[in-house]
């Protein structure tokens, strides 16, 4: 099958959508399919992928690639790259990873257009809650995590501490975790906390931690990836995802569980679907609910071991080969029905 994978973001850019695009493209290739990737992300000079990556192609190149493909697959709908389908009719598949709405919750003209055009494609959504927000039926297929990288490693001592891996922006709710740590301190509970990530809120968050007297127990480690991130996750028992925003899925939760962390996450969006029965949920945006769950995770004997029992079976559905196989089922169905714009 000739698959044209169009993803606005792609490595070397970093993030969940980029990770999914990379893992799927590589897996499609390993399964014997021809893959070409189109992205708006600039190269860092090293493109060592086993398939061509077209970065910011001109109109003629994009049209030529559309003529070449058998399946036109958008990793998130994009109006900027969908236009060739008005000239060349191809089976169109869209994988939705984000809400089709503004961050404020409102709907702009481009959102109305995207929602209308999605009716002419076969649709995939990364969670049931995201699928329910779409105007069309969508097959729910959770996003893949890199199961070759995120694993439990032998020989690494795991402390009782807490780790949070996040962009340091307000919607990710790291300030809620800091306030919860302050509440725990007042109860005499002083866990070590590692904040992994960077962003415009870093200085303000550091001042917040200092103001609560947490400078001796809270570390800001900056951005980490690859083996360094895996090692950090393996060194901690609890991973907190304190998102103030409504996440559509929880790739970070999968990575944390795969490294042996008990996940404590906001009960909203697609996070509960990603975690299943293998973590703890708190009321989104509620500092005291988060503090309560953290105290439970820190004090309850063997809670982590009990909740992570059977987690490998849960994670198996999110391995790249399994996820890619489900995507290919949708592609084959699109080819059979000749769904096109």
In total, the number of domains comes to 2
Structural class: alpha/beta
CATH class of the largest domain: Alpha Beta
N-to-C series of helices and strands: EHEEHEHEHEHEEHEHEHEHEHEHHHH
What is the overall pLDDT average?
Answer: 95
State the shape: elongated
- What is the number of beta strands? 13
Lateral arrangement of strands in the main beta sheet: 3-2-1-4-5-6-7
List the keywords.
341 residues, alpha/beta, Rossmann fold, 2 domains, 7-stranded parallel beta sheet, 6-stranded parallel beta sheet, 13 strands, 38% helix, 16% strand
Give a description of the structure:
- 38% of the residues lie in helices and 16% in strands.
- The two termini are 20 Å apart.
- The strands form two sheets. It has a seven-stranded parallel beta sheet with strand order 3-2-1-4-5-6-7, with helices on both faces. The protein has a six-stranded parallel beta sheet with strand order 10-9-8-11-12-13, sandwiched between helices.
- It has 341 residues and is an alpha/beta fold.
- α1 packs across α14 (320-337).
- It is elongated.
- It has 14 helices and 13 strands.
- The protein has two domains: 2-144 and 319-337, Rossmann fold (3-Layer(aba) Sandwich), CATH 3.40.50; 162-316, Rossmann fold (3-Layer(aba) Sandwich).
- It has helices at residues 16-30, 59-68, 79-82, 109-117, 128-133, 174-186, 202-211, 226-234, 251-258, 271-275, 287-299, 303-307, 311-316, 320-337, and strands at 2-6, 34-39, 53-55, 71-75, 92-96, 122-125, 139-140, 162-165, 193-196, 218-222, 238-241, 262-266, 279-282.
- The mean pLDDT is 95.
């Amino acid at each position: 099958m000739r698959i044209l994978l169009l993803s606005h973001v792609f490595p070397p850019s970093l993030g969940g959508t980029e990770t999914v695009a990379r893992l799927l493209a590589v897996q499609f290739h390993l399964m014997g399919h021809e893959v070409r990737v189109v992205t708006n992300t600039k190269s860092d000079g090293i493109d060592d992928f086993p398939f061509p990556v077209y970065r910011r192609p001109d109109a003629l190149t994009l049209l030529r690639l559309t003529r070449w493909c058998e399946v036109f697959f958008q990793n998130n709908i994009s109006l900027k790259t969908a236009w060739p389908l008005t000239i060349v009719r191809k089976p169109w598949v869209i994988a939705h990873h984000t809400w089709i709405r503004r961050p404020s919750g409102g709907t702009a003209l481009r959102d109305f257009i995207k929602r209308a055009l999605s009716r002419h494609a076969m649709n995939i959504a990364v969670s049931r809650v995201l699928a329910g927000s779409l105007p069309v039926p969508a097959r729910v297929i959770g996003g893949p995590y890199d199961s070759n990288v995120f694993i439990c490693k032998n020989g690494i001592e795991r402390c009782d501490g807490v780790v949070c891996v996040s962009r340091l922006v307000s919607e990710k709710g790291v300030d809620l975790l800091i306030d919860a740590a302050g509440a725990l301190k007042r109860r005499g509970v002083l866990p070590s906390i590692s904040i992994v990530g960077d962003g415009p809120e870093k200085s303000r968050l550091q001042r917040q931690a200092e103001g609560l007297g947490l400078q001796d127990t809270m570390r800001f480690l900056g951005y980490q990836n690859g083996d360094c991130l895996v090692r950090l996750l393996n060194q901690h028992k609890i991973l907190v995802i304190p998102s103030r925003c409504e996440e559509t899925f929880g790739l970070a939760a999968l990575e944390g569980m795969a490294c042996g962390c008990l996940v404590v996450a906001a009960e909203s969006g697609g996070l509960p679907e990603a975690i299943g029965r293998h973590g703890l949920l708190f009321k989104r945006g509620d500092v005291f609910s988060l503090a309560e769950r953290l105290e439970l995770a820190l004090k309850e004997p063997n809670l982590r071991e009990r909740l992570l029992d059977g987690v490998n079976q849960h994670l198996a559905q999110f391995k790249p080969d399994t996820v890619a196989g489900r995507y290919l089922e949708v592609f084959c169905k699109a080819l059979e029905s000749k769904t096109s714009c």
